[in-house]
Specification:
The longest helix is centred in the middle third of the chain and has 16 residues, at 428-443. This protein starts with 9 loop residues before the first strand and ends with a strand. The protein is 19% helix and 30% strand. The chain has 744 residues and is an alpha+beta fold. It is globular and about 75 Å long. The strands form ten sheets. Strands 1, 6, 7, 8, 9, 10, 11, 13, 17 and 18 form a ten-stranded antiparallel beta sheet that branches. Bound molecules: ligand MIG.
């Protein structure tokens, strides 16, 4: 439908009439609007454009950092210069170009440039011949986004495919890379937005557009993709350390129907010696789907249940949906109505829509007063010992209205901006998760919150982790979860995962085995399945599959110290936990096309088996030295190898020069380990480190953490100077070399 973008009605901002210089900003008053260029940092520039005479209020949910240290800027005729960027402005018509100091043009306005068509705002941008695109938030499509279109409009689509343009989460952040030129664009507009990176008019351009609003984008220039992502997460914020238990394996289904079933499942994990940290209550724990209630028959004593779970090392996570049943006999509804917490129709009167509980009212999460009110309802859940909250249906999904969501004219408070749903839609789920996060922070002052959300907008990492919504038990959906989570990770959300085993349809033993093998290396590792599908727990397919699942879940637990290091890195500067090959090997061109392998941190290369019946696969080893984790065979990188993969083996490689901190297998993260095992994979230079904290509180922010560096040289381990702010439970180090015990 590329032709639907007609030329006729497009109005470009036009020529510059006057230039107004400000502190680190310059305003260009143009024939058809005003454009403001603001330098935030040497490599970060903000561009705003309006067709009105003045820019509107400066408001964003995504942006965490509002103040930036003053950056020296030189402004001369048509050129703004920072220590990293040269921004040149052509005046008639106005065109902005971003170049590096050595003159390489990173990106620029192209063709018709910036402007408007009807209510839409749009930017036509130049596309280089060899430019590749990544990020763009959540998409069940290719890793490299060149040639595809992403629509940012939070959508509940349980039948999505590789070609689906709009999913649950909207993160309009584009990463561009080509040899020697890297940049990012965060297009901060919460209206329905499209990144058309397919063929627009010709190969030489791409188009970013939103249904309404101002143009407001941030340009990130970096010497690498790493620097671009660091800049983006500096602007939109970084995740906090989650509680350590959230790194463990988690079990869910829609739904475990009673306390007895929950306890049975939990006990089965212990009996079968399959490690697990958390179990989920999906919607059927509630009384008629009324949020913040319990079904008195099937879940009569929730406190006793969470106590029982805690005794065997399990946390409980409960689902909370946004729709509040319209029932005056129900306290949340009554109280919310009395206090005016729910959305109203454009003409007044409550807005109602149908979801699980039947006719529902919807809190206006864009109102700070509503967020605080909603938050307090979580108190009882927490008092009952619930450990984490799962926010679902918050696109929002509303079944009885066109488009499966609210009408676009529903008014929202939007933190004082007073807008309609058209602008609030993409931040509805964001603000629901935020309300939950803020409540958990308030109610459990020094405990790290665990919030998982399905819908989100840019910056969600400050409040919640995400999963990829309703996938299906299909090989192709398993395969696509790799590029999907890689791009989410590059879009500022390192803590993410997909339903292991697949949500819709019946899983098979082989698929569960392969998916569990791979899922063990995703940041979030949860098995979940839909109502009406067959049992999908690790033991649901007989002994062989159970043994395989157990082995890989155990491997996950053995690797927890290494994984925890990576969570720490993500919390510090937004570095993805799960990484595309090009993150570590930017000069190796192969990595940009590989979407069926990934790296967990710098050291582990994972090559999942994503095809039924496969017993071998080609694995690309990037330019370096590698060890096969299973056979310890040594390989030179920069080549494809054939890796054997019988059902119980997923190809896994360790980069030479790594020291992997590990533990002996434990059954849940509450168990203490007496030793940290350092598994050394010698290379020309061999080093590693271990980050430790209490795994539960914010003490780590008060410097109560430990950091120990290790080096391996001449057959000996050297322990570096230790930052010892946290007293580790592990008392000793055991050294292995490529998995073999050595004397040291
Ligand atoms: O309309 O709560 O994505 O994980 O099990 C379906 C029931 C609602 C969708 C979620 C899924 C969850 C299910 N929910």
């Amino acid at each position: 439908m590329a032709l639907a973008m007609t030329d006729c009605a497009f109005t470009s901002v036009g020529s510059v009439i006057t230039v107004e210089k400000r502190d680190s900003a310059v305003d260009f008053v143009c024939k058809h609007g005003r454009v403001r260029v603001t330098v935030l940092a040497d490599g970060i520039v903000r561009v705003r454009a309006t067709r009105a005479t003045e820019l509107g209020p400066d408001f964003s949910y995504a942006v965490a950092r509002k103040r930036w240290p003053k950056t020296p800027v030189r402004i001369t005729a048509g050129i703004i210069r920072t220590r990293k960027l040269v921004i040149s402005i052509t005046k008639s018509p106005l065109r902005i170009a971003f170049a590096t100091l050595d003159g390489t043009v990173l990106n620029r306005d192209n063709g018709r440039g910036m402007g408007w068509e009807g209510a839409k705002c749009r930017s036509h941008r130049w596309r280089a011949r060899d430019e590749m695109f990544f990020g763009c938030g959540e998409s069940a499509g290719p890793l490299n986004k060149r040639g595809s279109t992403t629509t940012f409009w939070n959508t509940d689509d349980p039948n999505h495919t590789y070609a689906t343009e709009a999913l649950y989460i909207s993160i309009p952040f584009l990463i561009s890379t080509r040899p020697g030129a890297h940049y990012g664009i965060f297009w901060d507009n919460t209206h329905r937005t499209r990144f058309n990176l397919a063929q627009v008019e010709d190969e030489k351009q791409y188009v970013l557009e939103s249904d309404a609003g101002e143009i407001d984008y941030y340009f990130f220039a970096g010497d690498s993709i790493r620097e671009v992502v660091r800049g983006y997460t500096e602007l939109t914020g970084r995740m906090w350390m989650p509680p350590r238990w959230a790194l463990g394996y988690q079990q869910s289904r829609w739904s475990y129907m009673s306390t007895d079933e929950i306890m049975d499942i939990a006990r089965s994990f212990r009996e079968r010696k399959i490690p697990c940290d958390a179990i989920y209550c999906d919607i059927d724990y509630m009384d008629g789907y009324r949020v913040f209630t319990w079904n008195p028959k099937t879940f009569p004593k929730p406190r006793a249940m969470t106590d029982g779970l805690r005794k065997i090392g399990f946390k409980l996570v409960t689902i909370i949906d946004p729709g509040v049943k319209n029932d005056n006999g129900y306290s949340v509804c009554r109280d919310g109505k009395k206090k005016g917490m729910f959305l109203e129709n454009a003409v007044g009167g409550w807005f109602t829509g149908t979801v699980w509980p039947g006719e529902c009212l919807f809190p206006d999460f864009t109102n700070p007063r509503v967020r605080a009110w909603w938050g307090l309802w979580h108190k009882e859940l927490l008092d009952l010992g619930v450990a984490g909250i799962w926010n679902d249906m918050n696109e929002p999904a509303v079944w009885n209205h066109p488009g499966g969501t609210m009408p676009l004219d529903i008014p929202h408070e939007y933190d004082g901006q007073h807008v309609t749903h058209a602008r609030a839609h993409n931040v509805y789920g964001f603000n629901m998760a935020r309300a939950c996060h803020e409540a958990l922070r308030k109610l459990r002052r020094d405990e790290r919150p665990f919030v998982i959300t399905r819908a989100a907008y840019a910056g969600i990492q400050r409040y919640s982790m995400v999963w990829t919504g309703d996938n299906q038990s299909l090989w192709e959906q398993f395969a696509v979860s790799i590029p999907e989570c890689l791009n989410l990770s590059l879009s500022g959300v390192p803590f993410c995962g997909a339903d292991v085993g697949g949500f819709g349809r019946d899983c098979t033993g082989e698929l569960l085995a392969r998916w569990t093998q791979a899922g063990a290396f995703f940041p979030f590792f949860r098995n979940h399945t839909a109502v009406g599908t067959r049992q999908q727990e690790p033991w649901a397919f007989g002994m062989e599959i159970e043994d395989i699942c157990r082995a890989y879940i155990r491997l996950r637990y053995r690797l927890l110290p290494y994984l925890y290091n990576l969570f720490r890195e993500a919390a510090l500067d937004g570095t993805p936990i799960m990484r595309p090959l090009f993150w570590e090997f930017p000069d190796d061109p192969h990595g940009y096309a590989i979407d069926d392998q990934f790296l967990l941190g710098p050291s582990l290369l994972i090559a999942p088996i994503v095809k039924p019946g496969a017993t071998a696969r080609a694995v690309y080893l990037p330019e370096d030295q590698w060890y096969d984790y299973w056979t310890k065979q040594h390989f030179k990188g920069g080549q494809y190898i054939a890796a054997s993969a019988p059902l119980d083996r997923m190809p896994l490689f360790v980069r030479a020069g790594s020291i992997l901190p590990m533990t002996k297998p434990i059954e849940h993260t509450g168990q203490k380990t007496e030793a940290i095992i350092l598994d050394v994979y010698p290379g020309p230079k061999t080093a590693g480190y271990l980050y430790e904290d209490d795994g539960a509180t914010f003490d780590y922010k008060r410097s109560r953490y430990s950091l120990t560096r290790f080096e391996w040289a001449d057959g000996k381990l050297r322990i570096g100077k230790r930052k010892a702010g946290y007293q580790s439970a592990a008392k000793l180090y055991r050294v292995l070399v490529a998995g073999r015990e050595v004397r040291s």
